[in-house]
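Whether sequence alone determines local backbone shape is best considered at the level of individual chains. When preparing material for the folding task, we compiled for one chain both its residues and its backbone structure tokens. No coordinates are needed to read the tokens, only the vocabulary itself. For completeness, the protein is quoted in full, as a sequence line and a line of structure tokens:
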Amino acid sequence: MELAYIPSPSSGVLYLGPVPLRGYAFCIIIGVFVAVWLGNKRWIARGGRTGTVADIAVWAVPFGLLGGRLYHVITDYQLYFSEGRDWVDAFKIWEGGLGIWGAIALGALGAWIGCRRRGIPLPAYADAIAPGIALAQAIGRWGNWFNQELYGRSTDVPWAVEITSSADGRMPGTYHPTFLYESLWCVGVALLVIWADRRFKLGHGRAFALYVAAYCVGRFWIEYMRVDEAHHILGLRLNNWTAVLVFLLAVLYIVVSARKRPGREDVVEPGTSGGEGGSEGSGDAGEVEVEKDEEGSSSEKKDTSESSDTSESSEDEAAKDGAGSAKKS
């Protein structure tokens, strides 16, 4: 029998003895590591130091998780504070529920604090980390698969996801895997930002703004397919309106920033030479200076030696002249 749907895991938790390993949390953690790894490579290519991205992520990640959870709880408050609900569940982040809008907003605040402590411009850091954030989202969306949540309308397409849980009002059946659609879209966004950054040398936050705009385009049509409970305004889900607003702001930033600050930053981190491969270039320049110093020292030694030989030759000639004069007298 051919597989006609994507099966869902029977449980989102694996146990190693008494230690629970939750699929949702595992996906988030892997996503963070990928974002920091790629961001570090891009930061070094821009002339920054190794480890700077990770140091700032220590501030950005906790703020991002807090912001993502706050956005989810505020916009879906009925899941935690309505009759028959337990408000303590609002703290159970491992059960799912992170709003990307809140995560980016407070994550940016945390990154700003980290950048300020190191004297680094936030837009340059944001440009370096942007594709990594998109890949982190692509990985994190698979946490929704573990929790059997955030799926779309009922369908019988071969790539439909099978929902077997009936908890929280779920109806077992096969549905559009919107988590998969968003995951693939985020991979495409990451590749787009990397290509555009290489092609157009985006700077001053424009690579990050491109990521935001491109993500909003995908989020709009994917959000439109979802069937989970949500607040609606004029027939559209709240996140649809948020995606439209954030998209317009991102495009406006790109246009205004390109006019006021064309090009990209020459130096992204204090104490570095800046530019692509700046850190390596600084080392090469140092080697050239050392070679010049060595050549200068050799020249000085040679000049000193020649001066000494000339002096000795002059003394010998003077001595011969003196001897000749004594014979004549």
